[in-house]
């Protein structure tokens, strides 16, 4: 475990830049909501993943080349959420374009952070922006995979899936071949070697148990003043009006509620106990077992809570 270090001098520049990499269902949206309340912050939310999952312009002509399931789903999204204006049109975004946007000056902002899925950039490492610190958020596989499977249940009617579907029935853009953990570990190793030797790892349950201790340690590490007032916030999705987030994601959330619990939150809740293996459906256990070595390697290097 990496211990929180003694007080560091603030960065020589006024601006702190942070990339948060994670796997799905690891409380990254509630962390993003929390960090949004740091003064003078700009937030980028899953811009790389949106390109990884849905590249290109979704015109009527292009929809004709999509699978019947994808067409059905996008039409349902448009019907349900056609009036939503929050978010940005990411349909023409590119990996290089997101990199350049992140690297902009962002004048007047003190804290720039981007939250994204590690698997989204593993084949496009050159698109990772320069000048950022890196934070990796991990969560125990016994908690991630049941949540991941539940999160797709509302999509069953749109994706020709059986009610008892397996996660690996999903296309790889929704369930990557390394199950998320291989990708986040390999990205961590790359970042340490090439970009940020002091890359930070935090565990989701550690964050829930002691949000003040974990976040104050993170802020100390990246050179950002910590204020306890960010640990409580108002319920609701108003915060995303300030995010650079794909509009499609906001629309999908209206249809299936991917982010509902996180956006309805007002603080970090204490973690639930780790479930027994026997409580998981058997189809999830191979994913858990394949992911545990990567999780354990990262967990052993995680940041501990600040005791100051």
From TrEMBL:
Pfam families: Sulfotransfer_5. InterPro entries: P-loop_NTPase. This is Sulfotransferase family protein. It comes from Patiria miniata.
